[in-house]
Prior knowledge:
The protein is α/β, with parallel strands linked by helices and 584 residues long. Helices cover 29% and strands 16% of the residues. It has 4 domains: 1-31; 34-130 and 207-237 and 266-485, Glycosidases (TIM Barrel), CATH 3.20.20.80; 131-203 and 238-265, Oligo-1,6-glucosidase, domain 2; 494-582, Immunoglobulin-like (Sandwich), CATH 2.60.40. The protein is built from 17 helices and 23 strands. Helix 12 (379-388) runs parallel beside helix 16 (478-488). The radius of gyration is 26 Å and the shape is globular. The chain starts with a helix and ends with a strand. The structure holds 2-acetamido-2-deoxy-beta-D-glucopyranose (NAG) (8 copies). One 2-acetamido-2-deoxy-beta-D-glucopyranose binds at residues 95, 97-98, 137. The site of one 2-acetamido-2-deoxy-beta-D-glucopyranose has 2 residues, from loops. One of its GO terms (molecular function) is alpha-1,4-glucosidase activity. It catalyses: Hydrolysis of terminal, non-reducing (1->4)-linked alpha-D-glucose residues with release of alpha-D-glucose.
Amino acid sequence: MGIIKVLTVVLSVGLVLGHNHNQQKEQDAKYNWWQHEVFYQIYPRSFQDSNQDGIGDLRGITSRLEYFKETGITAVWLSPIYESPMVDFGYDISNYTNIQPEYGTLEDFDALIARANELGVKVILDFVPNHSSNKHPWFIKSVARDPEYENFYVWEDGTLLANGTRVPPNNWLSVFSGSAWEWNDERQQYYLRQFTYGQPDLNYRNPAVIQAMDDVMLFWLNKGIAGFRIDAIIYIYEDAQLRDEPRSGATDDPNLENYLDHIYTRNQPEDYGLLQHWRQLLDNYSATHDGPLRIMMTEGYASVAQLMEYYEDANGVQGPEFPFNFDFITELNENSTAADFVFYIQRWLIYMPHGHVANWVMGNHDNPRVASRFGPKTVDAMNMLLMTLPGIAITYNGEELGMTDYRDISWSDTVDQPACEAGRDNYKWISRDPERTPMQWNDGLNAGFSNASHTWLPMNPNYRELNLRNQQVARRSHYKNYQSLLKLRQLPVLRNGSFVPEVVNRRVFAFKRELKGEHSLLTILNVKNGTEVVDIGDFIDQPNRLSVLVTGAESQYRVGDRLKAEAIELAPYEGLVIQLNKRK
Ligand SMILES: *[C@@H]1O[C@H](CO)[C@@H](O)[C@H](O)[C@H]1NC(C)=O
Ligand SMILES: *[C@@H]1O[C@H](CO)[C@@H](O)[C@H](O)[C@H]1NC(C)=O
Ligand SMILES: *[C@@H]1O[C@H](CO)[C@@H](O)[C@H](O)[C@H]1NC(C)=O
Ligand SMILES: *[C@@H]1O[C@H](CO)[C@@H](O)[C@H](O)[C@H]1NC(C)=O
Ligand SMILES: *[C@@H]1O[C@H](CO)[C@@H](O)[C@H](O)[C@H]1NC(C)=O
Ligand SMILES: *[C@@H]1O[C@H](CO)[C@@H](O)[C@H](O)[C@H]1NC(C)=O
Ligand SMILES: *[C@@H]1O[C@H](CO)[C@@H](O)[C@H](O)[C@H]1NC(C)=O
Ligand SMILES: CC(=O)N[C@H]1CO[C@H](CO)[C@@H](O)[C@@H]1O
C-alpha cells in the first residue's frame, strides 16, 4: 500500500510538473507569439479581386489565405478596410466600425477571420486615429455644434485683422502644403487638418474622443483580431497653446511642409500617454479573453531617441510592443556601404531599452520597393538580411517575389492624392502608385488579380515573367528563397541567438547568430556591384566547416556546398546564409 501511495504521489507530481510545463508553454504561446513573427502587410486594394470590379477585396484575401500557410506566414496586417470616401485610399475614415462597400461587408470580415483562425494566421488591423473623414457623422455633427460632438475636432476662431480679413490662428502647415487650418463657413471657425481638407484632426484633449476610439478598438477586438498597427502616431497631438512653429531654413517656399520645424505639431509628449493608455486597454483585453496577447505596433517617422520612448518611457511605462523601425527605408539605399548597414542595425539594437524586441521593416505602401530602392539583384540578399536579424520581420506584399515599382504609370492612370496634387510634370517621382500595383499571381489576365477589363491601377507589365506561379515552378526563385528563409527562422538560434556583426570591407558585411548547443549561423552580404573574395577566418572560430544553407536564385552555390572561410567568393549583390558546423 505504502509503495502504491508513493507511486501515486510521484505520478501526480509528474502530472503536476507536466501540467506546469504545458501551462508555461501555453503562457509563452499566448504572450510571446509576436516576438519572432514575420508580419506580412496586405494592401487590400491590390491583393486579390473577387467580384470583377478591378479592386481587391476581403473575399479575395480570404481566397488567398492558404498562400500564407504555404509560404510560412502566420501573421498579416491589413491596410485600412473601413468605410471611406477614398480621398486617401482608406486613410480618411467615415465610419470606423464598418467595411468600405467595395471591399465587402462585416460578414465578409468575419468569414476572413474565421478562415484565418483555421489556418493559424493572425490578423492585425490598421488603425488611423490622426483624423477622420469630413464625411464622418462626428464631423458633420461637430460642424452643427451638436453638444455631444462640438469639441470632437480642433476648432479655432483665428484672428480678425484690422482690415477685416480673417487669418488662421497660427502658421502651422499641412503635410500636403498650405495652411493646416481650413475655414468652415457653416460653423464660422477654422478646423485643423494636417493632411487634406477632407481629413479633420480629431481632438484627443476631449475625453469623449478617447472613449469613442476605445470603443472602436473593442469593436474590432471582439471580432477576433490580434491587434493594431497604428498609423501616423506622431501627428496625434498638437501644442495646446497653438504656438507658431519656427522656420526650419530648409526651403524658402512658405507653402511647403518643410518650411517649418514641426516642434509643436509632431511627436508631442501627449502622444506617448495615449499609446500607453491603448496598451493598457489591449493588455486588459488579453488578460480577460482567450487567445493571443493583442499587440500594438506603431507607424511614426521620428528620431531613434523618440522611437525608443514608445517601447517604454523613462519611468518604465510600456507603450506599443514595438514602433516600426524604418531604417532600411529611410537611412539605407543603393549607395550605402557595408559599414552603413552595420551602423544602422547596431544603432537600433543599442538604443533599444532592455527586454524589448527589435523589428525591421523592409517595405511598405508608401515607399519604393526593395528591387527599385536597392536594385533588382539585391532582392534575395535583402530577404536573407531581414529574416536572419534578431527580432521581428515585416514584409510588404509582393516583396517575396521581388516585385518592382511600375514608375511608368501615365498621368491619366495616376490616382495617388499627393501625386495628383503635384501635377502632370512632377507626379512621377512623388507618386506612391508604382509600389501599389496589384499582386502578380500568374501570367494570366491581370496576373490573376482580377478578371475585370480595367483594374484600379494598371498592372506592372512585367507580370508575364515576374509572378508567383513562375517562381513556384522554377527550381530556384525569389519566392523559394523567401520560403526557405521562413522555414529556417524556426531554428532556436535565429529565435534566441546572440548577434555579432562584422564589417568585412566597404562592400561586404556579415553577422553571426550563436546559441549554446546549436549550430551557429552566419549571414554574409555583398552590397556592391562587383565580385568580392573575402577572408572571414578571423571572425569565426570554426574556419573549415562552413556549409551553405540558403543561396539566392542566381547564385553559383548550392545548398550544402562547403566554403573556405579564408576565401569566400561573392557575386555582385550576393547574399548567403551559412551554417558553421561544430568541430567534432
Ligand atoms: C457605422 O456603421 C455601422 C454598421 O453599418 C452602423 O451600425 C453605425 O451606426 C455606423 N456608425 C456611424 C457613426 O455612422
Ligand atoms: C488685409 O491685410 C492682410 C495682411 O496685411 C493682407 O494679406 C490682406 O490681403 C488684406 N485684406 C484686404 C481685404 O485688404
Ligand atoms: C485596465 O485594467 C486596470 C485594472 O483593472 C484598470 O485600472 C485600467 O483602468 C484599465 N485600463 C484600460 C485602458 O482599460
Ligand atoms: C546614388 O548615387 C548616385 C550617383 O551619385 C546618385 O545618382 C543617386 O541619386 C544616389 N541614390 C540615392 C538613393 O541617394
Ligand atoms: C477569372 O475567370 C476564370 C475563368 O472563369 C476563373 O477561373 C478565375 O478564378 C477568375 N479569376 C478571378 C480573379 O476572378
Ligand atoms: C528563447 O528565450 C526565451 C527567454 O529567454 C525562452 O522563454 C524561450 O523558450 C526561448 N526559445 C527558444 C526557442 O529557445
Ligand atoms: C553592375 O555592373 C554591370 C557590369 O559592369 C553593369 O552592366 C550594370 O549596369 C551594373 N549595375 C548597377 C546597378 O550598377
Ligand atoms: C505618416 C503618415 O502620414 N501617415 C498617414 C496619416 O494620414 C495621412 C492622411 O490620411 C496618410 O496619407 C498617411 O499615410
